[in-house]
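Q: I'm writing up a methods section and want to include an example of the input and output format. Could you take the sequence below and give the corresponding predicted structure tokens, formatted cleanly so I can copy it straight into the document?
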Amino acid sequence: MDRGGARIPRSRGPGGAGVSERGSAGATPRGGLRDAGSLLARNPDFRRLYVGGLVSLGGDWFLTVALFALVLDLQGSALSLALVVIGQELPFVLMSPVGGALVDRLDRRRLMIAADLARAALCAGFLLVREPGDLWLAFVLLFALSSWSAVFDPASSAAVPNLVEPRDLATANALLGSAWGTMLAVGAAIGGVVAATLGRDTAFLVDAASFLASAALLARIRRPFGEPREGVEHPGVVAATAETLAYARRDHRVLALLAVKGGFGLAAGVFVLIGVFGKEVFGRGEVGIGTLMAFRGLGALVGPFLGRALAGRDGRRLHAAILSALATFGVGYVLFGLAPSLALAAAAVFLAHLGGGAQWTLSTYGLQRLVPDRIRGRVFAFDLALVTLSLAASSLVAGWAADHLGPRRAAVALGAVALAWALAWWGATRGVRRAASFVPLEEPGLGTAGR
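A: Here is the clean output for your methods example:
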């Protein structure tokens, strides 16, 4: 699941000294389109990461559109689409503890390049899936792709605070979050047309090429992706996972931000229904799927910048902005389930992911401001695993509900789940909101977190 993110503490550019508590809390964050353009112009390393993400994400949506249409043709049920999503998400969850430990132990840039190269080779394997008896191979390939993503995604989220200045971190988050939406809009729309006109094999090859391009851009980044590891203890996978959970339990601000994204995943299985609505409810095939995904992308493109504005330049309204974003996601999918036409369904999807994009970016931004570099990879691996696990469960429920109750009822029900979670989360985090600040907690034996 891609997968866009958000970040903060102090970067380690040339002459930088790493993340510092004073640097992250004292700098005035930037935001808005003008600052976004300035950041891309001033910081070539971040620009390479951003462009690589654009290219790779665009390829991913070529793959998604083509794979959804392929599975529907070979298997023909909403549940089969849910199994595709689970085939992507379950291995991500299983491999996240390993991925997080590797991200905090090894060179993040080299890990990300290795993951891109491996995924490029795996994408070419989808060329061999031709008939129902070959579907097992598609699931094996999905398992391997997701396993590498469990390394790449937390490494990317953990690295960004080290690639930009503290005042630019909010802008970097909005840019990366909107990149996900931009390439969903462009990649899904073009991917639908390419799959329908040039064939699915072309879409699979485009995704493979996008990973190679991303690896080439990452190889040119010169700033370090993490702080020096000298003198830092590297526990095993089990101990590292236990340490991550203990850290979240100790800092309820971190726990609250993890919880909101996990709850978002409980409703986000409604994504499975986009394929059903585009191809079957509205009868528009790959073009229908691509259209709905494109409007999903447009919402996710605008949402991060809107969320940044709602949260305020210093992030003081962060929790209220997250509440509004998650509630908007729920309302959008309730309207999606009731939409009588493809055009109105597309507008509802846009609204939903206006909220979804804002919620994802803001919660990630908060985590990056709070969590020190030495454990940041593991925290993001846990964060992504939690939302992925809840998404997998939600996808299975969505597919079953669409087959047995109808896709419209399923969409309305999952939208209502998002609304309910937003209200429950708001009530449960009252104490956290009153005491909220972005000063990291002191870590036993380490002093101020983030030094």
